[in-house]
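Re-running GRF-type domain-containing protein to confirm reproducibility after the cluster update. Everything else is unchanged from the original entry.
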Amino acid sequence: MSQNSYSSQRKCACGLVVKTLNSSTTSNPGRRFYRCPHPDFSSCGYWEWEDQAFPEVAYLRNLESSLKDVKMEMDNSKIEVGNLKIEMENLKIAVENLKIKAGHLSEIIATLEASNDLVVEKVRTFEDKYHKIKYKVMISCFLFVGFLVAITTK
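Result of re-run:
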């Protein structure tokens, strides 16, 4: 709220002694100004700053306001840092869980590779047996055909 008085001898366009008020805005806290004493709807519109009335108070209020803003920013930053720390801890936990899963997957891969090696060895053994049997069957067929040719040609 503005504080007011009629101590000034200045007069507005209405011919009345102007009110001296103190600004309560954040941009000009405590700064004095003059205005027409009539309510806004019937005022002549006279308005003027009285710049040198409370420069120290205005300066201190501006500093106080700035300090409050800085404190609020610091509090918000602290909250944000706290949230980031929590998020970082959650990420660390997630990384540890992923490391555990990676270890399990490595074990599974090792098991599958060993199993694959066994399957490959069995396939090779089967192929060797297949080729041996194939050669034996072919030799037997050639011998049988040769035997048949020998019998029929006599």
